Amino acid sequence: MNVVKQHSKLLKLQAKAAVCISRKEAQVLIRKAEKAHAKLAF
């Protein structure tokens, strides 16, 4: 995948995490962030 696209996904997830109030929503965001980060590692 495109590195720029993954970075933009991580930035969007970071913004969502800043206003997140529920634990369940936070867990979903963490999973998505880990997935995007893994794509950047390769």
Low-confidence parts, pLDDT < 50 over ≥5 residues? none
Tell me the major beta sheet.
none
Please state roughly what percent of the residues sit in beta strands, choosing from under 5%, 5-15%, 15-25%, 25-35%, 35-45% or over 45%. Answer: under 5%
User: How many individual domains?
Assistant: 1
Structural class: mainly alpha
The averaged pLDDT comes out at 93
Anisotropy-based shape: elongated
Helical proportion, percent range: over 70%
How many angstroms does the end-to-end distance come to?
A: 10 Å
Q: Give the total of beta strands.
A: 0
The number of helical runs is 2
Helix and strand pattern: HH
Taking all Cα atoms into account, the compactness measure Rg is: 11 Å
Keywords:
single chain; 42 residues; mainly alpha; 2 helices; 83% helix; elongated
Which helices and strands, and how do they pair?
Layout: H1 3-18, H2 23-41
Helix pairs in contact: 1-2
Question: How would you sum up this structure, described in words?
Answer:
The mean pLDDT is 93. α1 runs antiparallel to α2. This protein has one domain. It starts with a helix and ends with a helix. By secondary structure, the protein is mainly α. It is 83% helix and 0% strand.
